[in-house]
Each structure stands twice: as structure tokens, then as C-alpha cells.
Design a protein that fits this description.
Number of helices: 12
Mean pLDDT: 96
Number of strands: 10
Low-confidence stretches: none
CATH superfamily of the largest domain: Butyryl-CoA Dehydrogenase, subunit A, domain 3
CATH architecture of the largest domain: Up-down Bundle
Structural class: alpha+beta
Strand content: 15-25%
Bound molecules: coenzyme a persulfide
Number of domains: 3
Order of helices and strands: HHHHHHEEEEEHEEEHEEHHHH
Distance between the termini: 53 Å
Helix content: 40-55%
Length: 419
């Protein structure tokens, strides 16, 4: 694939970032491109490449070396999502979800023991992780959580379920929310916990040597449910999580009791930067394919890239990519600097989700009939892009977050929350 260049990179990236990106690109060209179409068609989870990505250290990019990481930063993590997504968004989200949704809350809110026990395994890619927030009645309204945790003498008992969980079936370490107290002041008391279970794919994990840690203390009463059959991200795993009198030791509460909602919101801010970079990568990948195709395709004795109608669209496309890069890299740098970045994360995610949808639709259009077939990767990228306006907070939720920064919170009856 033709590699897009960008002077935006000069503004943000260090030599280490560039080396990381070059390493991922080489890996993707050699190991991902040959299987990307097949894992999409078969909805097969690419365990062989999970092992290789673990070996390259991709799961540990932003974590300190003492926890098994590479000691890089939030921008490094964003680059992992972006570069993998150019080639295969399913690979990208498998790594991105483990970093930003499972490992990040443990790094941000965990005790030293929790970090040693769980973060190190996630950072080394020994097992995959996931984050359980969404429930059948708690999607955009994340406070609608119905999963409950009942306090016993030395443990908690969880009952309920989570849906649409990336890595839910393949993963082993999970951070989930549950209601730990009755509603007060119009709000439920929500806390978060670390749970573990064996991966669904025991044989495959054992064959490649990652994905299963037999010595993890698995949570009794916790299991994965059905795996979703999806429009896109078909090489990634999206599954249900089920808690049936799941027994969670007291020391597995993550962060303070009652801080689960706020902590999850903070985790989602980081997840949104990762999703934004993922979607930026999809738009870039689609453009790289389209440049090549439009330079080779001849109609009316003319390369189609020489038609002004195509040139203008390609110019808009690249311009939007450069704008998306500024938003994403800026949000990642604010996060790294410990400055507020909720609004910037929401803006980056909103912008890049619309960019990825638009760009991949254009890519299919410019490829003509070829673009509509699975011979070319752009139809897969178009399907993969569609999750951008839905996952990690819909575009409507991003607009709510941005508008609150602009106008302050909207007025609404508090008693509605108590229901
Ligand atoms: N960081 C830290 N704290 C935050 C926060 C953030 N990004 N966002 C909200 N909070 C805090 C608020 O400050 C408030 O704290 P106080 O109780 O001290 O006032 C508390 O959390 C509740 O916030 P709020 O009243 O805004 O909650 P709402 O129920 O109105 O929900 C939205 C806010 C809609 C923004 C939230 O529910 C949301 O992001 N929903 C989408 C969930 C989502 O993305 N799901 C996809 C998961 S896929 S992994």
C-alpha cells in the first residue's frame, strides 16, 4: 500500500513513535494483510497474530516497564490503534480494548497488588482483557446499570449481565461495574470490580502460547455468554458476560466504593482517544487503497485520479485526515500531560467516526464495482467503520459531552434518575 505522509507528524511524534509505527506497518504487511480477508469472512479470531503482537510488545506500549510495559505514552498507544486499523480494524480493536479499557482502569485506579497481578499480564499480552459497562438496559445511559453486587463478610456476590463486550469471550481479565448500594440523591451507588474467567478458546490459546493463564484465580459464577455475529470487526470477539452469584474477593474492588461510574467515565475518555485514532487509521487505510486504485484504473483513456471530480474528493479526504490527526494527537498529548481532555476526546471521536464513515463510502464508490466485492479491502473497511458512531459512546453522546462543555449541563428533573 502507498504510505501517506504527513507534516502533522512532525509536530507531535518523536523518533520512538516513528519507529513504533514503522514496526507495526512492517508486521501488518507481512502478517495481517495475508489473513485479514479470511478472518473477516470466517469471523475467526486471529490467535496466531495475538501471540505475535504480544511478542512485539504492542499490548504494553503505554505502561511502565515495571508492569511489563514498554514505557511509552498515550500517543504511542494511539499510534498502535491507528496503524493496525489501516490494515485490519479487528486486530486494532483487540489490542486497543485491552490497553485502554482493561489495563488502563487497573493502572489508573488499582492497588499495587492489583497492578502486579493483573496489569502485568495484560501489558505483556499473556491474556486479553475487557471492560464490562454496557447492559441490555444500560447503553448510552451508563448509570442504568442493573448488575448488582451484594456485600458479604469477605467477598461480594455479583448477579447480572453485560453485553457487546469486546474480548468478552476470548479474554480472561475483566473490569466491570455493578450497583453496590441503593439509590441516593437520585443516583445509584456504582462500584467497579476485577473478575477473571478462562478464555473461550482454550485450545487455540494453548496452541499459540498466549491467551490463557492457568494460575489466575478464576471467579466462581462468572462466565461468557453468546458471541455476536456482526456487520464489521468480524475478526474481533464481541460477547456477553454473565454473573450468577459470582464470588468476588473484597480485594478485587477496583478504586473506591461508589466511584465506579466516575472512574468508568474517565476510562471511557481514554477509550475514546483510542477509538478516534482507530477510526483515523481506517480513513487513512481507505485513502491509501484508493490512491493506488485511482492511479491504476483507466477509463475514457484517462487514469481516474486525473478526473477533477476525483481529485477534489481526494483533496478533501486528505485535508480531513490531517484535521483528524490534530484532534487525536492533541487529545492524546493532553491525556499524557494529565490535563483535562474529555471534550477533546469526544471531539476527536466524533470527528473521526464521521470521517471514517465518509471516507470508506467514498473508497467503495471510487473503486466502482470492484469496491463492492470482497476482492478489495475497502468494503470491509466500510463495514468496520460503521461501529465508530456507536461504540465507546454514540455520536449523540459525544455531542452531549461537547455541548455540556459549551453550555453547561442541561436542566432535567433529578427524580427521573432515581427510577
Ligand atoms: N470524567 C470524570 N467524571 C465524570 C466524567 C468524566 N469524563 N463524566 C461525568 N463524570 C462525573 C460527573 O462529574 C458527575 O459527578 P458528580 O456526581 O460529582 O456531579 C457524575 O460523573 C455523573 O455525571 P453525569 O450527571 O453527567 O451523568 P449522566 O448520567 O448524565 O451521563 C453521559 C453522562 C451521558 C455522558 C454518560 O452516561 C456517557 O458517557 N454515556 C455513554 C456511555 C458509553 O460510552 N457507553 C459505551 C461503552 S462501550 S466501552
Amino acid at each position: 500500500m502507498i504510505e501517506l505522509t504527513s507534516t502533522v507528524d512532525d509536530r507531535y511524534l518523536t523518533d520512538e513513535h516513528r519507529m513504533l509505527r514503522a514496526m507495526i506497518r512492517e508486521f501488518a504487511e507481512n502478517e495481517i494483510v495475508p489473513i485479514a480477508r479470511e478472518i473477516d469472512a470466517q469471523a475467526r479470531f486471529p490467535w496466531e497474530n495475538v501471540a505475535k503482537m504480544a511478542e512485539l510488545g504492542l499490548f504494553g506500549v503505554p505502561w511502565p516497564e515495571e508492569y511489563g510495559g514498554a514505557g511509552m505514552d498515550a500517543l504511542g498507544a494511539a499510534l498502535v490503534s491507528e496503524e493496525l486499523a489501516k490494515f485490519c480494524p479487528s486486530h486494532s480493536i483487540t489490542v486497543g480494548a485491552t490497553i485502554t479499557l482493561a489495563a488502563a482502569p487497573i493502572y489508573d485506579f488499582g492497588t499495587e497488588d492489583q497492578k502486579r497481578k493483573y496489569l502485568t499480564r495484560l501489558a505483556r499480552g499473556e491474556v486479553l482483557g475487557a471492560f464490562g459497562l454496557t447492559e441490555p438496559d444500560a447503553g448510552s445511559d451508563a448509570q442504568g446499570t442493573k448488575t448488582r453486587a451484594e456485600e458479604k463478610s469477605d467477598h461480594w456476590v455479583l448477579n447480572g449481565s453485560k453485553i457487546f463486550i469486546t474480548n468478552g469471550g476470548v479474554g480472561e481479565i475483566f473490569v466491570v461495574t455493578a450497583v453496590t448500594g441503593d439509590s441516593s440523591g437520585g443516583r445509584k451507588e456504582i462500584s467497579s470490580f476485577i473478575l477473571t474467567k478462562p478464555t473461550r478458546d482454550l485450545e487455540e490459546a494453548k496452541a499459540v502460547g498466549v491467551g490463557h493463564a492457568a494460575d489466575l484465580d478464576y471467579t466462581p459464577g462468572f462466565r461468557h455468554g453468546k458471541k455476536e455475529d456482526k456487520l464489521g470487526w468480524r475478526g474481533s470477539d464481541t460477547s456477553e458476560l454473565i454473573f450468577e452469584d459470582a464470588i468476588v474477593p473484597k480485594e478485587n474492588m477496583l478504586g473506591q466504593r461508589g466511584h465506579g461510574f466516575k472512574n468508568f467515565m474517565r476510562t471511557l475518555d481514554g477509550g475514546r482517544v483510542s477509538m478516534a485514532s482507530h477510526l483515523l487509521g481506517i480513513a487513512e487505510g481507505a485513502l491509501e487503497h484508493t490512491i493506488k486504485f485511482t492511479q491504476e484504473r483507466v477509463q475514457f483513456n484517462t487514469r481516474i485520479c486525473d478526473f477533477q471530480a476525483i481529485r477534489f474528493e481526494l483533496a478533501d479526504w486528505w485535508t480531513r485526515i490531517e484535521a483528524g490527526k490534530h484532534l487525536v494527537y492533541h487529545a492524546a498529548m493532553l491525556k499524557q500531560a494529565g490535563q483535562p481532555y474529555s471534550k477533546e476526546a469526544a471531539m476527536a471521536k466524533l470527528f473521526c467516526s464521521e470521517l471514517a464513515d465518509w471516507a470508506t463510502t467514498k473508497a467503495v464508490q471510487f473503486h466502482g464495482g470492484y469496491g463492492y466485492t470482497t476482492e478489495y479491502p475497502v468494503e470491509r473497511l466500510m463495514r468496520d467503520a460503521r461501529i465508530g458512531g456507536i461504540g465507546e459512546g454514540t455520536s449523540e453522546i459525544q455531542r452531549i459531552v461537547i455541548a455540556r462543555h459549551l453550555l453547561g449541563p442541561e436542566q432535567r428533573p433529578v427524580e427521573k434518575r432515581a427510577q
